[in-house]
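Our consortium's second objective concerns turning raw sequence data into structural hypotheses that experimental partners can test. To show how far this objective has progressed, the report includes one record in full. It was chosen at random from the queue rather than selected for favorable results. The single chain below, 499 residues long, was entered without modification.
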Amino acid sequence: MEKSLSATALHGGKWLGISALAQALLKIVVVAVLARLLTPTEFGLVAIAGIFIDVAAGIAAMGVSQALVQQRDLMGHHIRAAFWIALVTGVAMTALLYFTSGWLAQLLRGPEAAPLIAALSGVFVIQALGVVPEGLATRNRDFRLLAVRQFVAYVLGYGVVGIGSAVLGAGAWALIYAQITQTVLATLLLIMAVRFDWRPTATWSAYREIFTYGSGVSVARIATSFANQMDRVIVSINTSPASVGLYTKAVQVTRYPNMLVGKVIEDVLFPSFANVQADRERLKNAYCRSVGAICVVMMPVSVFFCLSAGPIADLLLGPQWDGVVPLMMVLSVSLTFRLVQRISNALMFAIGRSWLIATWQVVLFVTTTGGALVGIRFGLVGAVIGVTIAYTVCYIAGTVVSALLLSLSVSRLMVRYLTGLPLSVLAAIGVAAGNSLVVAEFVPSLVGLAISVLLAVVLALVAIRFAPRLFLQEDGQWLFSLLLSKLPQRLSAFPILRR
């Protein structure tokens, strides 16, 4: 990847990364508090409502934000057309969900979720007002604005309103109030920061251009939502709201690394890839290096999550959530593959292949549905195993498709999945040492987790210091050097960080 593209992506990643890190840490605290104030059944009811909200979100957004970023020659009439497309679809989705909320809740055998679905339906009108400002901010790579907006909205939405409502006994409604507040604040911050002409335009070609690209993005997101939610639908139909709560919480906790890194990947790499979409050599180098760097970082994290699922669940959720531990262990297997797919998605969106993503997501939906249907016969763990296998196979297939699009050697690209193996071994050693102390009853579970983290980090730093080629490979060395160059001089001079 050439220096200019690397610097651009890293600069954007810095702001979004800071926001994502701060938000991830805050989410850990918020989830830990709410998990002790609300029951699995209450979480399960909100999860049932969230199934329909997530699917409808793909329709309501209509890919407008991405269309504005991808458009090479963006004109004023494109912006005006995009706003009205987003607003009309947002209003339509709000009306549809509000008036069908009772039937939808009955469909998943959770009638108590009907008023929750009706209340959350209002978020689509609110979100529609911020779609164009978000697209313009992303196009202009104003990552600082996007980062501040994400963090502030979450702090006040979940950190203040959500926890406050739960303490006052609002039950499942605490999560509804939190989500609505977060949506309102995030939209307001965007509207105040990004000014644009929102009047209707009579240039019908602008509507067509935005709709053509955006509809592909929308279909891709709808298919993604179905693929991501169908397992929850199957669990909901075949079990109880409490089981849905356990399942959903296991997915949520296991995806913390994806939440931390994945959104940053798409928000930064999509505009960066789009900026060089005509230069295929730069695009190839950027994609390959991004995949390799992610695998170096995420494979050890995946191993750590899998082997430390018990202590992590104790720390984040408390004793009433013991049932999530085996689910988390299985789900953590697909972490690396999921993040690589986020890179592939950013690539396909950037080169205008949104309909290809939609097609691929339909395949993902079919395979995950099949995996969940077969697995649920063996309980929650069986459902998770079936879905995880389906996800992993499809994510690897997505990487192959990306290689073919760029005329890359598939074997050259696939070998990058192995770059994180050396550091993964060190992560496993650190976890094994910490778990051994817990099993021997020398230390409590949370102390053992802290020891595991410390040992894994120290072993990794020492290995990187003395054998960077083995433990980082080429892509990892590039990422480490790039990050090291951005550290304060005093910190980067620390002996163990020098290579």
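The partners drew two points from this record. Residues 3-37 form the longest helix (35 residues). The two ends are 21 Å apart (CA to CA). Both points have been shared with the crystallography group to help prioritize constructs.
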